[in-house]
């Protein structure tokens, strides 16, 4: 089953999750590094996030946050932390594959955020607020083009 892992450094990798529900849960726990929570930012996708990300002091995941904001159509007032796995929605407890269009959008957003973070090495943003606005602009542009 097709899924995508988005790491805090704005890299992503495609995954094949097992069909078995218990095996899916174990793999998600391993990939995320703890107990996963399901977050819905798109009606045909789930973002699996670390259930205690802020308390565990996991790094901010700007690409996953920008993707969630773009899919939801609003600026989330909170951040996402640690690795995030994106799958299709659940059916009867088991997860489904992420469809090709959403997989492409998630990969495009991740790639754009990674490029932007590289640019910031020579041209840092003026503030955290400016950085968030720039991330969101890149993410929304990627979603519109896919």
Structural write-up:
The chain is of the alpha+beta class and 146 residues long. 42% of the residues lie in helices and 21% in strands. The protein contains four helices and seven strands, in the order ββαββαβββαα. The chain has helices at 21-32, 62-72, 100-119, 128-145; strands at 2-6, 12-16, 36-42, 45-50, 84-87, 90-91, 94-95. Strand 3 and strand 4 form a beta hairpin. It starts with a strand and ends with a helix. The model has no long low-confidence stretch (mean pLDDT 92).
Keywords, separated by commas or semicolons:
alpha+beta; 5-stranded antiparallel β-sheet; 4 helices
Fraction of residues in H or I helices:
40-55%
Overall strand count: 7
Uncertain stretches: none
Task: Give the terminus-to-terminus CA distance.
Answer: 22 Å
Q: For the largest beta sheet, what order do the strands appear in spatially?
A: 2-1-5-4-3
Beta-strand content: 15-25%
Major beta sheet, specifics? Answer: 5 strands, antiparallel
Secondary-structure element series? EEHEEHEEEHH
Average of pLDDT: 92
- Work out the radius of gyration: 15 Å
Described by the principal axes of the CA atoms, the overall outline is globular
- Which class best fits the helix and strand makeup? alpha+beta
Number of helices: 4
Give the secondary structure arrangement, pairings included.
Blueprint: E1 2-6, E2 12-16, H1 21-32, E3 36-42, E4 45-50, H2 62-72, E5 84-87, E6 90-91, E7 94-95, H3 100-119, H4 128-145
Antiparallel strand pairs: 1-2, 1-5, 3-4, 4-5, 6-7
Helix pairs in contact: 2-3, 2-4, 3-4
């Amino acid at each position: 089953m097709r899924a995508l892992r988005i790491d805090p450094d704005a890299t992503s990798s495609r995954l094949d999750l097992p069909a078995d529900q218990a095996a899916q849960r174990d793999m998600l726990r391993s990939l995320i590094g703890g107990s996963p929570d399901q977050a819905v930012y798109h009606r045909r996708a789930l973002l699996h996030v670390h259930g205690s990300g802020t308390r565990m002091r996991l790094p901010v995941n700007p690409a996953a946050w920008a993707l969630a904001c773009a899919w939801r159509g609003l600026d989330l007032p909170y951040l996402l932390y640690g690795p995030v796995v994106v799958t299709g929605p659940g059916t009867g407890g088991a997860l489904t594959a992420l469809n090709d269009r959403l997989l492409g959008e998630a990969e495009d957003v991740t790639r754009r955020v990674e490029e932007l973070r590289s640019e910031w090495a020579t041209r840092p943003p003026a503030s955290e607020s400016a950085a968030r606005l720039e991330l969101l602009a890149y993410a929304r542009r990627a979603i519109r083009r896919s």
